[in-house]
Amino acid sequence: MTGYVIYLSSTNSTSRHLEHYGYWTGEHYQHQGKFYPICEEKITENTKIYKYEITANNAAERAFKKFGEVSRFMVLKNERGQ
């Protein structure tokens, strides 16, 4: 499906190296009071695909605020048939 996907990444607080979460599935889990995104390395059938770029941007901003470990996000156009 053509649309937009969200790619999330974080910075390891001890080493300051960029660590990649991956393509967000739109799901999350909670551990010890913190929320973490569920992501995959590649775009798969589990990846959340947004029909409109504005919707993907809004969701990415909400995810950025919700997941304390996320330091960056990118909204990318998905033109594959996933």
Describe the model.
By secondary structure, the chain is α+β, with helices and mostly antiparallel strands. It has one domain (3-78). It has one helix spanning 53-66, and strands at residues 3-11, 18-31, 34-40, 70-78. A four-stranded antiparallel β-sheet has the order 3-2-1-4, covered by helices on one side. Strand 1 and strand 2 (18-31) form a beta hairpin. The N and C termini lie close together (5 Å). The mean pLDDT is 88.
Number of structural units classed as domains = 1
- Mean of all residue-level pLDDT scores: 88
| Contiguous helical run count | 1
Distance between the first and last residues' Cα: 5 Å
How many runs of DSSP E, i.e. beta strands?
4
Q: Give Rg in angstroms.
A: 13 Å
Please specify the SSE layout and strand pairing.
Elements: E1 3-11, E2 18-31, E3 34-40, H1 53-66, E4 70-78
Antiparallel strand pairs: 1-2, 1-4, 2-3
Which tags fit this structure?
82 residues, alpha+beta, globular
Task: Give a nutshell description of this structure.
With 82 residues, this protein is α+β, with helices and mostly antiparallel strands. It is built from 1 helix and 4 strands. Helix content is 17%, strand content 48%.
